[in-house]
Fold:
Amino acid sequence: MSFLEVMLLALTLTLPFALYRLVKGPTLSDRVVGLDLITSVSVALAALYALVSGQTAFLDVAIALALFAFLATLGLARYIEYRGHKGD
Amino acid sequence: MQMWLVYILVLGGVFFLLIAAIGVVRMPDLYNRMHATSKAGTLGVGLILVAVAVFYQELSVAARALSALAFIVLTAPVAAHALGRAAYLSGVKPCEDTYIDELAGHYQANHKLESVEKTPPAHKPESNP
Structure:
């Protein structure tokens, strides 16, 4: 197992932490923070897999994921602001 | 030599993403958690993208990696600011140890998005038949 594959595995270890915040998070905003971390780790995973596999097409996956993550966070933030004071 | 630089950059990127993940679990309130993910997360992804650009040393790959990096560096603060503002306005309280809240009293409690107010509600029945 090469060094980069070990790094790929280590990067996967961050996903349970973010998933914990996504499930447990006391407010909706906490869940959005967890989701944001999951997507940015996915961008890093796609970029790192472009190194491991030798296929540069995975960089395009990283770019598209980063775009979607930004739009999703903005949309959810707007929804939270529109919804106003509500417990969840 | 160049391979060692790639290894160091990837190691740094994975380290910062792990720090962000630990921070998002361990930090006491939403604003501290956003501090962990928006800064450490951006730096981690950025270091890995720079590692890709250094590894391939081709113009097309470097352009794609660095444009992704520029996009993330430009958009992460905007997304974090929008989310933090929305959370503050929707009444998410800072943790108990916070001793100054400089925004307290500067926002109305029943704040509404102005653009949402202007658009007519979709399901409103017509008043004149």
Notes: Residues 116 and 123 of chain B are 14 Å apart (CA to CA). Chain B touches chain A through 55 residues (CB under 8 Å). Helices of chain B lie at 2-26, 30-56, 59-89, 114-118.
